[in-house]
Design goal:
This protein has 152 residues and is mostly helical. The mean pLDDT is 91. Helix 1 runs antiparallel to helix 2, helix 2 runs antiparallel to helix 5 and helix 4 packs antiparallel against helix 5. It has one domain: Ferritin (Up-down Bundle).
């Protein structure tokens, strides 16, 4: 069974997303909404990881042995200025979508296993991850005109 590999991937992806939200919050602290909301969303990612600890205990946590493949990598530095914020938000959006797709894969396994506990966890966490992506996209739409038409 390969579910443990995806549980490990999901755990690492949620950790990377949490760290990235915090990095963006600190790097763009002059944007109050970005600072506060990114910290809130990072806490959600931490809570997601806590929610599926029991699932990892049951099925195990495997490691992906294909380093040349797509994997979640946290954002380690931020760019400056309005265009920097826009690009950092895009990076964050891509990472969020990777996490979201991983939740979808784990949900399909939970359906196949008829694992009700896992389905409840996935439904809540997947919904929150979707909302995280929606907030990022809304913030991108807000930042784009300023960054592309006004800022230098």
């Amino acid at each position: 069974m390969m579910l443990p590999v995806y549980l490990g991937l999901l755990d690492g992806a949620e950790a990377a997303l949490a760290a990235s939200f915090r990095r963006i919050a600190e790097g763009h602290g002059d944007e109050p909404d970005v600072f506060h909301i990114c910290h809130t969303l990072a806490k959600q990612c931490d809570a997601h990881r806590e929610r599926f600890v029991s699932v990892i205990e049951r099925y195990g946590r495997g490691e992906d042995d294909a380093p040349d493949r797509l994997h979640a990598e946290e954002i380690t530095e931020t760019r400056s200025g309005a265009v920097g914020l826009l690009r950092d938000l895009q990076d964050l959006y891509v990472l969020t979508k990777m996490v979201d797709a991983t939740w979808v894969v784990v949900k399909q396994a939970a359906l196949g296993l008829r694992d009700e506990e896992l389905l409840v966890i996935v439904d809540e966490c997947e919904r929150q991850t979707n909302l995280q992506g929606e907030w990022i996209m809304t913030r991108i739409k807000q930042a784009a005109p300023q960054a592309l038409l006004v800022a230098r």
